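Researcher: Please generate the 3D structure of the following complex. Treat every line as part of one assembly.
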Amino acid sequence: MSTLLQVDPTTVANGINNVWVLVVTFLIFFMQPGFALLESGQVRAKNVGNVLMKNMTDWILGTLVYFVIGAAVVGIVGGLTSGGDIAGAFGHIADSNAWIGWLFGAVFAMTAATIVSGAVAERMNFDAYVLFTVLMVAIIYPVVVGFTWGGGLLSSSGFIGGALGAGYLDFAGATVVHMCGGVAGLVAAKMVGARKGRYDSNGNSQAIPGHSMLLAVLGTFILAFGWYGFNVGTQATILAVADDGTLTFMGSALGRVALVTTLGMSAGGAMAMLTSARYQGKPDPLWTANGILAGLVAVTGAVPHVTWWGGALLGGLGGFLVLPAFHFTVDRLKVDDVCGVFAVHGVAGAVGTALIPIFAVGGFALNQFVLQIVGVGVIALWTIVASAVALAAIDAVVGLRVTEEEETEGLDEGEHGVAVYPEFVPNETRDSTVATDGGELRTDGGCSLGNAVDSSGSAPDPEVSADE
Amino acid sequence: MSESADTPIKMVMAYIRPDKLGDVKQALASAGAPSLTVTNVSGRGSQPAKKGQWRGEEYTVDLHQKVKIECVVADIPAEDVVEAIQDGAQTGEPGDGKIFVLPVDSASQIRTGAEGPDAV
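Model: Done. Output below.
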């Protein structure tokens, strides 16, 4: 019978820490259905299938691309912008000991990618979106990670971080993940153009209500649930091993990230609720939901670094800014950001991360504050330029937008040939040569667009229709 | 049989507030005409348009949610049915709805094959 003394404490700590990382990874993966519901609820019923396809594509193509290319780009950019070594950039592919860490990184990458779909919903060509997702996960996002967590440009060993004598603080990716996704979404929404009918002939915005507030709010709660993995799980070490072999439980660090995450989301929701009640007369569920997410984004970079009340203030500020930032996007920039991703992920991420030193547990440091502002600027600038170039290239190859006819009919029918909410379908097999509406029976769901599958080969001869 | 065959068949078609459906069903049952068909419909009449909002941006809702009632009668006078619906559905505010009475050419009961007033 072995005693605890015979067990290597490093093995115990590694085992527990890695299982913890896997658990939070699965939690972060669960943010994907949250995004799918949140975005689906904010679009019209005719475009829900397209939103769902985009969300699934982000995950399925994203993981493939991030394994083969994206994760290596992190290492390459990290090395090149810090004078470090890039030889091991592709090392994770052959090293099974690196795969838990890779997966933990991958769920963050797919979160960044999926944010974009909310901005460009209801009019972007699916092929163009697929190509953009690939570029987002292969290059745009990994470069940001390389600048920061990858030990590059903005880290303490990078060229900018080293010059300022500090390392850029963004704990779980308020800017690295969320602002990157939010800014890329803003650029994409701008380049794709507004939905038909979003602005009248005078350029004034017109409401296009989504089809289900219920789905949007449920999606928000699921996202918030997954977010505990995102923020608390980034405290990946729960058992630390000292040189003398003693194990320490990191309860204080875990407690701080868990509490600040919670207070941030609640303060964000409360401020958005108050702001909407102040400007619209009544507390608005969608703004409140957006505020919860903006509060989460605002503290995502800050959770281990700030006081509990500082976290609540940052979250509240993120929630407060959602409504004005959305109106600025729509009314001043004239960008049709369907789900408000720039307000929720972009603005809240930038503000929450830039202000970390103001509320820092260890006190204010000017060089850190300067680095935070420079870091936010560098990440935003890279994302804007890279997204714009990527989208311009995609536009030249496949075109960014669906046709006006397809937009009117809905992307579910036009891009995917489905109806998410089918109305009347026969409940038994009938003589398929007789069309019950007296017209031609189409096997492609009635789609008559140019890009639809030509059904003339398989459809029954129109002459046998029931009547004329 | 021949006597009842001469009884005119009428359809009373009414558009009412959805929240008044329970009162109208009660009133119809009291008047002896409990059979009815109900459909959710949208429409506009004298009720003013209202504002909806999405993210604080307002839009006009000028088609209001109403419930359509169809009640076909032969033995019960259509006037009694109209009065029952009127009693059940009235609030006095614009948007209470309308009631129409239409002649019905013929009626058949699918289960029994009965024709005319007997089918109603």
